[in-house]
């Protein structure tokens, strides 16, 4: 049976590819998409989600804009990676998917209430919407099977030396989600940096020869140029789709169950995810933390999704 999923995101180039994978793979039943401020403002991330769902032909999936700022503190957007639109690179027309009038948090709540079974939330942006959901509707925690999160790192960060962008954008939200009692699996930079969009990957996508494949190449080419400029990467890491690939095929990622904390107070480490991989602290294991990616399995799933969506009916 397909896994019922709510996708909470902030598109963003890698979020865009995650949307394609969620729509295309029959193992996922995409119930709704909520967006949050992160890679760009929430208005732009909602527009970008609608653009990608339109490209994927998923016109029946509701999209709603959620929280427009972190729980505390000012918003810092990731336009230095994703550009002015949040999806710079291709030229997009008007999306076919409408914007749902509900707040994104209420869309999540209503979708959970209507579901026949517990739902998996895939959260690939800052965790503001999910923390707000638990504040407004604490009973919704019982309706969630698991939250699979793209965030954090067992090693270094990217937005700051030790903090990954999604977590440092709203560390308080990340801490509240971690401490909510809902099972969580964390896909950090240490995993996603194993999913580099190398030339061979771009060639495989381009060889599909479909309009969607061409859009994906344009997206990933812009993304790659931004990553090279910001961090010197020869090929950019495709972070977000790993969360869905793991749900589709758990053998894609090896993880460990460890004690995890979110650093809230460090002058230089705020937003860092502190994973006790070697059991040095007296912490009860409270999260699954990703370690190793099967790169070939991952790219077969991702490229297969682009091929499936671009194939003639």
Automatic annotation (TrEMBL):
A single GO molecular function term of this UniProt record: hydrolase activity
Superkingdom of source: Bacteria
Domain Inosine/uridine-preferring nucleoside hydrolase: 5-300
Record flagged with keyword S-adenosyl-L-methionine: no
Record keywords, A-Z: Glycosidase, Hydrolase
Keyword Metal-binding tagged: no
Listed CDD domains: nuc_hydro_IU_UC_XIUA (cd02651)
Protein name: Nucleoside hydrolase
């Amino acid at each position: 049976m397909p896994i019922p999923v709510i996708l909470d995101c902030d598109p963003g180039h890698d979020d865009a590819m995650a949307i394609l994978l969620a729509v295309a793979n029959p193992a996922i039943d995409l119930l709704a998409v909520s967006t949050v401020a992160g890679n760009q403002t929430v208005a732009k991330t909602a527009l970008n989600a609608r653009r990608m769902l339109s490209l994927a032909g998923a016109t029946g999936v509701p999209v709603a804009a959620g929280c427009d700022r972190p729980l505390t503190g000012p918003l810092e957007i990731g336009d230095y990676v994703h550009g002015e639109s949040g999806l710079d690179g291709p030229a997009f027309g008007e999306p076919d998917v409408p914007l749902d009038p509900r707040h994104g948090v209420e869309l999540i709540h209503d979708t959970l209430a209507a579901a026949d079974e517990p739902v998996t939330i895939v959260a690939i942006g800052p965790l503001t919407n999910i923390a707000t959901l638990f504040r407004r509707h604490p009973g919704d925690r019982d309706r969630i099977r698991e939250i699979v999160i793209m965030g954090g790192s067992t090693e270094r960060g990217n937005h700051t030396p030790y903090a990954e962008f999604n977590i440092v954008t709203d560390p308080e939200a990340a801490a509240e989600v971690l401490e909510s009692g809902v099972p969580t699996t964390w896909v950090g930079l240490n995993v996603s940096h194993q999913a580099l969009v190398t030339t061979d990957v771009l060639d495989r996508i381009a060889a599909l020869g479909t309009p969607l494949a061409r859009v994906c190449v344009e997206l990933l080419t812009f993304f790659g140029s931004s990553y090279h400029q910001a961090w010197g990467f020869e090929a950019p890491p495709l972070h977000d789709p790993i969360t869905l690939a793991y749900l589709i095929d758990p053998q894609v990622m090896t993880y460990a169950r460890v004690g995890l904390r979110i650093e809230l107070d460090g002058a230089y480490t705020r937003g860092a995810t502190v994973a006790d991989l070697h059991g040095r602290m007296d912490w009860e294991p409270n999260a699954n933390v990703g370690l190793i990616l099967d790169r070939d399995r991952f790219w077969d799933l991702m490229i297969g999704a682009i091929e499936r969506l671009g194939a003639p009916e």
